[in-house]
Amino acid sequence: MNNFWVTIKHTARNRLKSKAFVWSTILISLIVIGLMNVENLVTAFGGDAETDTSTVAVISETENEEVAELLTSLDSGELTYLNYADEDTDSAIQAAENDEIDYVLELSGAIQQLEAEFFRTGSDFMLGQQVQMDVQRVKETVVTNELGLDEEELSMIYNPISFQESSLGENDAVQTEETHMQSYWMVYGLVFVIYMIIILFGSIIATEVATEKSSRVMELIVSSVNPVTQMFGKIIGIGIAGFVNILTIVMAAFIGYLISGATFLEMLGGEEIQFSLVGFAVLLIVLGYLLYGGIAAMLGALVSRAEEVNQALQPLIYLAMISFFLAIFGLNVPDALFVTILSYIPFFTPQLLFLRMGMTTIPVWEIIVIFMILVISVILVNLLAARIYKGGVLMYGKFSFKGGMKQALRLGRKER
Predict the structure, then answer these.
(1) Taken in order 88, 90, 96, 100, is the CA torsion positive or negative?
(2) CA distance 128 to 343
(3) Cα of 254 vs its chain's centroid, Å
(4) Angle at 364 between CA 174 and CA 341, to 5 degrees
(5) What is the pTM of this model?
(6) Span 169-226, pLDDT tens digits
(7) d(Cα 18, Cα 408) in Å, to the nearest integer?
(8) All domains of the chain, ordered by start, with CATH?
C-alpha cells in the first residue's frame, strides 16, 4: 500500500512541477479571465468614443407624408433618418456612393400595405432588421392615429398579457426559457470538459507509460512496484494534477466574473445554479475519467515507443469523439429515443446521462440503474486493463492491438 501512495505522490508532483503544465495552466487562466472581460478590454483599449451614427436618407413615395416625418424624429440610437423630400431614389443612391450619406430607404404604397426597400452595403444583417422595426413602429403609430384611438384604447391593444406555465402533475417539472438555457450551458460545458479530459489526460497517461518503457525505466519500476499498483497510482496521480488544473481554471473564471461586473455568469446561468446538478457533473467526470483512464493506461502499456501512442489511442479517441458529437446533437433533442438508449452504454453515460438529467425529467430509479451500470463497468474495465497492463509493460516490439492484447493477457497470467 505504501508503494501505491508513493506512486501517486511521485506522478502528481512531477506533473504539477513540469513547465508545460504550469505555463499551460497560467495561459488558459489568463484566456478565461480575458474572455469574461472582453467588453471591459475593448472599452479600455478603445477609449470612450461614442458609437458612430449612420444616416439614412428617406425617399417617401407614399400618400401619407407623416411616415417620413415620424421617421426623421425617431431616436433609434445608431441610425439617423433624413427626409429627402425633394430628391428621388436615384439621386439619393448617388449621394450614398459619394459618401454624403450612408444608406437609402425608399417607402412606397398605401399606409395599409406599406412597402420599404433598403439600399445598403456591408455584412451587418442586424442593420436591416433595425430599419424594418423602425418602419413598422412608425406605421403602427400612423394607423392608430388615423383610427382616432385615444391613449386608453392604445394601452388596451399594446398591454402585454400575463402568461405563466404550470405543470400538469404534482411532481412534473416545467422548463422555462431561463432554466432551459441554464441547463443547456451546463450540459454543454460538461460535455466539452469530459471530451477534453479523455483526449488530454488519456494521452498523458498513455504517453507517460510508453516513455518509461522506451527508456527502460519501466524494468526498474516493475522490479520494485507491482504493475497494477503502478497503473492505478499513475491514473490517480495524473487525475489529481488534472483536478488542480481544472480548479485553477475555475478560480480564474471566478476572478474574471468579479472583474467583469457580475454580469457574465447571470447571462449564462440565470439567478440560481443547480448545485445538485453540479454534484452529479463532478461524479460523472470522475467515473468517466476512471473508465477511459484505465483503457488509456492499458493501451500505453502495449506500445514500446512514445511515437506509437497516437496510433494506440485512436480507438479511444474515436469513441470519445462519437460520444461528444452524440451529446452535442442530443442537446437539441434530449428526449430522443437514441439518447435514452445510449445513456445506458458506459462509454456514453457521462455525457448522455447528464444531458438527460439537465434537459429532461428522468426517474430516480433510472438514474440509480445507469449509475450502477457505470460503476460496475468502471470496475470490470479497470480489472481487465490491470491484467493487460501487467503483461504489457514487459512486452517490447512492434505494436499490434489484437496480438498485443493476447500476448499481454498471457504474460499477465504468468506474472500472477
Answers:
(1) negative
(2) 44
(3) 17
(4) 90
(5) 0.69
(6) 565 555 556 566 666 777 787 778 878 877 788 888 888 777 776 665 555 565 566 7
(7) 31
(8) 54-155 (3.40.190.10), 177-415 (no CATH)
Report the alpha-carbon distance of residue 324 to residue 331 in Å, rounded: 11
Residue matched to cell numbers 499498483: 229
- Give the model confidence (pLDDT) of 59-103 as tens digits: 888 777 777 788 888 766 678 888 887 778 888 888 888 888 888
Residue type present at position 382: N
CB 61 within 8 A of CB 44: no
Q: Please give the radius of gyration of the chain, using alpha carbons only, rounded to the nearest integer.
A: 31
The C-alpha cell at 157 is 391593444
Return d(Cα 122, Cα 135) in angstroms, integer.
20
Q: Rounded to whole angstroms, how far apart are CA atoms 65 and 73? A: 13
